[in-house]
Amino acid sequence: MLEIKNLHARIAEDGTEIIRGLNLTVKAGEVAAIMGPNGSGKSTLSYILSGREDYEVTEGDILYNGESILDLDPAERASKGIFLAFQYPVEIPGVATMQFLKVAMNEQRKARGEEELTTPDFIRRVKEAAAELKIDPAMLRRPLNVGFSGGEKKRAEILQMALLEPKLCILDETDSGLDIDALKIVADGVNALKSPDRAVIVITHYQRLLEYIVPDTVHVLYKGQVIRSGDKDLALELEANGYADIIGKAA
Amino acid sequence: MAAVQETIDQVRQIDVDQYKYGFETIIEVDKAPKGLSEDIIRFISAKKQEPEWMLEWRLDAYQRWLTMEEPTWARVDYPKIDFNELYYYAAPKNMTGPSSLEEVDPELLRVYEKLGIPLQEQEMLAGVQKPRVAVDAVFDSVSVVTTFKKELQKAGVIFMSISEAIREHPELIKQYLGSVVPTTDNYYATLNAAVFTDGSFVFVPKGVRCPMELSTYFRINEKNTGQFERTLIIAEEGAYVSYLEGCTAPQRDENQLHAAVVELVALDDAEIKYSTVQNWYPGDAQGKGGIYNFVTKRGDCRGHRSKISWTQVETGSAITWKYPSCILRGDDSRGEFYSIAVSNGYQQIDSGTKMIHLGKNTSSRIISKGISAGRSNNTYRGQVSIHRRAENARNFTNCDSLLIGDKCGAHTVPYIEVKNASAQVEHEATTSKISDDQKFYVMQRGIPEEEAIALIVNGFVKDVIQELPMEFAVEAQKLIGISLEGSVG
């Protein structure tokens, strides 16, 4: 589903190279974890996959279902099924969460040439998904992410993911700032979305989240490259020995 | 920084030529000779079949105007206007006053149809769901048709063109015209008093709640024609009226002048709600052409417990110079000003309000949202003045500015003057930019760039949109989206 080939990318503003020859393949149905120490390029990778303008790809390619997506803007990539659950969801003052969901769902349907949702159908879908994630309906009337607690923001991200039904879900440090109960709810939400035609990339610093969202593959990112790949045991090894060991071997 | 460079490029390519109302209508017109003189004023007065006292009033104003200087304090920049190069009167031929719908030139009706203005009463009456709005349509210098007149008459409401009112209700005109904005008020208001051609007149008698929204649509069609409309709204004791004006003009290379005066009078316990959706032609991408919108709007809360509320959505005009104000004369009276001002391309907006607290326990509220894009400049200028005898006066002001791109400007110039120690005056102001974070986040959900900007901006102006009559809120939101088209790539 996703094939990243020898990717090099830098910050557009100052030319700092962050991704330096990264290779990664994620298959449909797979849950891939990307781990790595701070500054290894994990979040940057999620931004580049979703098309943020602040980064320039200087070499290599990103193929999504066999096609390069480098020329597509974030909205085009989103309507092709790429979803990023943000580490720090952004506040949108004055735009009710409900209204935002409706615009997003209908814009994506429009881009795919589908009919807009009827209001009752839309409301039913939102209610069901919100109940699964134990989201208070009152929250849906509030402006998106404005004054939300850390847990509410992350749940709102998963709610959007559930409703937009993407094919490639990228979770950027979704566990940060969550207590254990909230973490379980979020993980259950993600697990419910697992399916043979959907891939999930879990970007995380710690093993903790991977106890709840069990990965098929684990990749260690360091200085903009995947320096080691393995199965879920690799995450446990990292937890026990820290990154220094693996980094030392790779160097 | 590539992202910034891209924004700069986008702004350079800005295309405000997407003005959707820029068509011209070829219609036979009856025009006054070019230029301004006593004779021209006599010509206008004669065309309107005005009584002698009205002519005298105009001529007095003209004499006064000749001694006045054009104001220069606003943050706007434009070449000197040659008032002798303008036409002061243009009317569709055979149309000296309003008539019933059947008598109106079908070509004119098609203009209003193109603009989406419902003049067809029958059609509106047939639609059960449609809101019923009485419309006065002003084309260049004359009012062409006023709808629902009979039904309003039954309720005792007078809604007609001001030219008609001068002939039919001279006693009301004599009593109220110029009583809020005197003929000596300011350069453009004085000019308006001399040469005003048409506008609306509304009188809601004691205790009457106007049964429907009233609205006026202004259209400047003729080249080099100034439009000087004059509107007067009076709500007697305990009366209520909600009024909406909308404005459009064709695209032209020359600048056109629009200098209106609006006066509102609210007696004891009366309430007037005045909403404007202003979408005059803003000029092209290079800043050529567009309307000069120099307007004096003032409401007088003359009675106790009266209330006047101004709501404006300003998206058009090359230059806007406009400060809808409230004189809070009656005790416990209340003034409100809700404004959305969107500037793009080379537009210049200097707009705000004045709240003059004279009576006891008077209160005022100002919510202003300025959005600047392109190379435009957007200034909020407001005055809150609490006079000596205004015990327990209250004011709350909130001015927020939003910048799109980095070639535009936002300015906030509040004046606060307090002469009574019991006053409470609050002022809040913020300036922000649509952040790359916000735009990226919204687009990541599959919302294309222009829709993303429109969504964020509509969130920003939500507090004001809520104040608009329901049926116009949607229209206003769309208009804001259209006005910002081309502000991003």
TrEMBL record, chain A:
Record-linked InterPro entries: AAA+_ATPase, ABC_transporter-like_ATP-bd, ABC_transporter-like_CS, FeS-cluster_ATPase_SufC, P-loop_NTPase
Boundaries of every ABC transporter domain copy: 2-248
NCBIfam families, sorted: sufC
One annotated GO molecular function: ATP binding
Family listed: Belongs to the ABC transporter superfamily. Ycf16 family.
Protein name from the UniProt record: Cysteine desulfurase
Annotated PANTHER family: ABC TRANSPORTER I FAMILY MEMBER 6, CHLOROPLASTIC
Record key words, sorted: ATP-binding, Nucleotide-binding
TrEMBL record, chain B:
Pfam families, sorted: SUFBD_core (PF01458), SufBD_N (PF19295)
Annotated source species: Pseudorhizobium pelagicum
Protein origin, superkingdom: Bacteria
Listed SUPFAM superfamilies: Stabilizer of iron transporter SufD
Any Gene Ontology biological process: iron-sulfur cluster assembly
Spans traversing the lipid bilayer: none
Domain SUF system FeS cluster assembly SufBD N-terminal: 151-210
Domain SUF system FeS cluster assembly SufBD core: 218-460
The name this protein goes by in its record: Cysteine desulfurase
Family designation: Belongs to the iron-sulfur cluster assembly SufBD family.
